[in-house]
């Protein structure tokens, strides 16, 4: 029988990446779209880890099941690590990423320090247990212009120098191997094996 994991997110891009990584290992991945009565979960934390715990714990508390939640975002050094935990809500939650990406590029036009990183914190919550968090990063630079059609969010302007391409130009396999989320999921999988889940 498949093991079920509820990913506390409605972000289709995130769900897709989790499914690609976890379904081959025998997990059935469900999302917040399967639990419509949960309502909006307020992300009031000031760190990626805190927000990840808040989202997963809300699912565990309501349904008495194991949940995982990812909180991730982009830290741009020239912007004092913004947008950071506000990455999804920066410039407005419903603002298209094509616009957000253009704003970043415009503000970075004359900037020599283009270093940035994606950060991902994955929280696991289970009934009667303390939350567990796995956090990882991938160091990148802000590209000069958007490129690529894969991925989502800021991927078209986040350039990974070892591959010589943006996150949006990578195949899913390439991205999952080096991404902040991919590396955090490996930590999650190792822990799950250790826990016998």
Automatic annotation (TrEMBL):
Task: Quote the record's cofactor note.
Answer: Binds 1 Mg(2+) ion per subunit.
- InterPro entries per the record? dITP/XTP_pyrophosphatase, ITPase-like_fam, RdgB/HAM1
| Residues holding substrate | 9-14, 72, 152-155, 175, 180-181
- Reactions this protein catalyses: XTP + H2O = XMP + diphosphate + H(+); ITP + H2O = IMP + diphosphate + H(+); dITP + H2O = dIMP + diphosphate + H(+)
Annotated Gene Ontology cellular components are: cytosol
Query: Any idea which residues are catalytic in this one?
Result: 71
Task: Identify the EC number(s).
Answer: 3.6.1.66
Return one GO MF term: nucleotide binding
Is Nucleotide-binding included in the keywords of this UniProt record?
Answer: yes
Alphabetical UniProt keywords: Hydrolase, Magnesium, Metal-binding, Nucleotide metabolism, Nucleotide-binding
SUPFAM superfamilies attached to this UniProt entry: ITPase-like (SSF52972)
- Where do the annotations place Mg(2+) binding? 42, 71
Names of required cofactors: Mg(2+)
Q: Which GO terms describe its biological process?
A: nucleotide metabolic process; purine nucleoside triphosphate catabolic process
Q: How does it assemble?
A: Homodimer.
Summarize the protein's role. Answer: Pyrophosphatase that catalyzes the hydrolysis of nucleoside triphosphates to their monophosphate derivatives, with a high preference for the non-canonical purine nucleotides XTP (xanthosine triphosphate), dITP (deoxyinosine triphosphate) and ITP. Seems to function as a house-cleaning enzyme that removes non-canonical purine nucleotides from the nucleotide pool, thus preventing their incorporation into DNA/RNA and avoiding chromosomal lesions.
Among PANTHER family, the record links this protein to: INOSINE TRIPHOSPHATE PYROPHOSPHATASE (PTHR11067:SF9), INOSINE TRIPHOSPHATE PYROPHOSPHATASE/HAM1 PROTEIN (PTHR11067)
The entry's family comment says: Belongs to the HAM1 NTPase family.
Please identify the protein, giving its name as recorded: dITP/XTP pyrophosphatase
Species in which this protein is naturally found: Solobacterium moorei
Gene that this sequence comes from = rdgB
């Amino acid at each position: 029988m498949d093991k079920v994991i509820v990913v506390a997110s409605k972000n289709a891009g995130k769900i897709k990446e989790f499914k690609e990584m976890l379904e081959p290992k025998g997990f059935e991945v469900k999302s917040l779209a399967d639990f419509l009565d949960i309502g909006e979960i307020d992300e009031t934390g000031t760190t990626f880890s805190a927000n990840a715990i808040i989202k997963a714990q809300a699912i565990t508390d309501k349904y008495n099941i194991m949940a995982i939640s990812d909180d991730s975002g982009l830290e741009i050094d020239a912007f004092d690590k913004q947008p950071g935990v506000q990455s999804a809500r920066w410039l407005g939650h419903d603002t298209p990423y094509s616009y957000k990406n253009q704003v970043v590029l415009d503000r970075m036009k004359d900037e020599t320090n283009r270093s940035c990183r994606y950060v991902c914190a994955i929280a696991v919550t289970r009934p009667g247990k303390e939350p567990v968090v796995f956090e990882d990063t991938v160091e990148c630079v802000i590209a000069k212009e958007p490129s690529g059609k894969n991925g989502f969010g800021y991927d078209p302007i986040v350039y990974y120098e070892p591959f010589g391409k943006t996150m949006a130009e990578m195949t899913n396999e390439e991205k999952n191997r080096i991404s902040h989320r991919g590396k955090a999921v490996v930590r999650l999988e190792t822990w799950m094996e250790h826990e016998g889940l």
